[in-house]
Amino acid sequence: MLWTVTSGHPRSHRRARRRARWALLCLGVVIALAVAAVFVLRPPGPRPLFQMPVACGETWQIGTYPGHGDYDVDFFPLSGDPWGQPVLASADGTVTVAGINGSLGGRTPDNPDGPRGRGGGYWVKIDHGGRWETQYLHLLEPPLVAEGQRVSQGDQIGRVGSTGNSGAPHLHYEQRQGWQKVETWFDGAPSGITTDEAEYTARLTSNNCP
Questions:
Q1: Which fold would CATH assign to domain 58-206?
Q2: pLDDT per residue as tens digits for the range 35-65
Q3: What are the respective helix, strand and coil percentages of the chain, to the nearest 5?
């Protein structure tokens, strides 16, 4: 007769496996938290020399209004048809988002009073390194760049439109340090837009030149 030899009770094996899985899970959580802490606590790098996201030598109105959002900047051209004006990268970087934020709505050059959408419509985000980022919203059509694409300062990434929650063709623009919006700087100088408590406008000339 053959006898079956076991090294222990099956329940003890199951408990050991559960303990091992639990230990691995805890280790994974600790590693993830450590990586996140390094990213969050790492100081941002120096501010890139951001340029206005519009063509070299052009003068545009920048502004904000109550309820717009602190540090948010709207760009309006002072000459020519705003629909379809080129939107340029403010600095070298890598595209991290190129798609739709919210919903598009129905405002087009042929139907400028069409229904509004939600959010930013067609938009682009660019990572400039050192935890610096720029965002470009309400573009007319799908962006001219793709996620993961490397862009240089002055490269065209889209065209001015009025998709998303937009009342008229313009470019909504943001600069971010880490996850926080900050005052936009152009060509080494602050824009002056820090709060949306009151309406504010200024005229700036782009130095986003080759």
A1: Glucose Permease (Domain IIA) (2.70.70)
A2: 444 445 567 899 999 999 999 999 999 999 9
A3: 15, 35, 50
